[in-house]
């Protein structure tokens, strides 16, 4: 299958922030009306010829060589035309800094390409830019984005720069800066770099991917050699070009197995790249593909014990994100809850959990007992939110437990679907919700009826459907969880039956701990037609001590405790069914 190189570039940059370095040449500044280095040299030669009352013709470089019997040297030309530093500064500014009229015409100011590059740097997609240009348009564009780039153009600059990994934005001007008379222009000057520049370029070209734009490779022989030396590069190279390629460019493309992109202009290319990356970022924030990729990674890490560390790192990293995004700062208690604000908060919490819920579900479904403590750790970490009496609205206090409840239900559903009753004991019976005052059994804090309380959860259905529900919290979660777990369970699983079994088990464990847990939709759903309660009753009678919950060590392995707990839940369910 052929993939558009522009799409490949955008995807690579988006998924590997900071991995790619830019190499930009004069073509990126072309639309700004900035002259190339050789353009400046030729114009300086023309001025020198006028001072000698001579005509340099169409080839000023040739005239200079024949007249002075040597190649033109930029610094010598500058010094001959402008002897003092002030005069040199004034002369050079005329080439690179805009007049009032030029500014009005949009000349010698940062181009759309420069602005797009600067915004991508500000967003963290690029950190290192190598350029052959003398102008300061890139630095100006970066400063407009509030950035202060580290710019190096001489060996002493390189010696004084911070270590490469610690530089947020580095601009390497390999041929110098226009205000420094040491800039490189002539073939002799461009054939070799100093040791410090070579060492820096060697690191960049080996440790980073490369995106080339506006550079032909025809004149900068030392830069060509630096890229050729890089034979152990780790990431891809993308080469943007408008017209035909020079021989040097063709050879470099072949050596680095570069991907070519035909472009109309540097402006169009970088604006398009920025647009595509923005689209990918927006999609990442809301697209269910991201959770699918996370689930696929979980499956891979579960397949072999050698990935044990990577698995834990992945899970704990996402857990940290969820904890941060469900903190009191993210969901303040300030305003009184309403139908609209309650629904908004519930849905925003689900968005935050859209990746970790299927990750834990997949972990329980495909994992084994060696991983069970990791899933328990995640649920317990999210169950630490404490109700703050007197300082919080009740609805917001209870809703703090919604992310942990989503996680517990996902794990429970996966466990029952996979018949892994041992992990149910680990999560439901042994799990603890830590508070500042005490450790509470997790089943007394988590559950659809605990976090989505009866009166509050009615809002979820009244707002859009104008309905009153017997078990609104349970109904809501039964509607929301299937979409999060479809890729794990598959379409052939009877989700509602498994959901009911999870809630019955939660309520039974709570009852066994001499407490009450609000019952769920199993109380009325199919109660007379062989629903979950009827099935559980039949299983207990048929299996007795061999019931899988007892075999897993739940209810202390005691059939009488199991039967008593079930009867308590059954009686509570009958009362709810009569609402």
Structure description:
With 579 residues, this protein is α/β, with parallel strands linked by helices. The protein has three domains: 5-34 and 108-282, TPP-binding domain (Rossmann fold, 3-Layer(aba) Sandwich), CATH 3.40.50; 37-104, no CATH class; 288-577, no CATH class. 56% of the residues lie in helices and 7% in strands. It has helices spanning 5-15, 37-51, 60-68, 74-81, 85-96, 100-104, 112-122, 137-144, 155-160, 195-207, 221-229, 247-255, 266-286, 289-303, 308-325, 339-352, 356-366, 372-382, 394-399, 402-417, 421-429, 448-451, 454-465, 472-489, 495-512, 532-543, 548-551, 559-577; strands at residues 20-24, 126-131, 150-152, 170-173, 209-213, 237-241, 259-262, 432-434, 439-441. The strands form two sheets. A seven-stranded parallel sheet has the order 3-4-2-1-5-6-7, with helices on both faces. The longest helix has 21 residues, at 266-286. 42% of the residues are buried.
| Mean pLDDT metric | 85
Strand order of the largest sheet: 3-4-2-1-5-6-7
Number of strands: 9
Distance between the termini: 59 Å
The biggest sheet, with number of strands, parallel, antiparallel or mixed sense and barrel status, is:
7 strands, parallel
User: Which radius of gyration do the C-alpha atoms yield?
Assistant: 34 Å
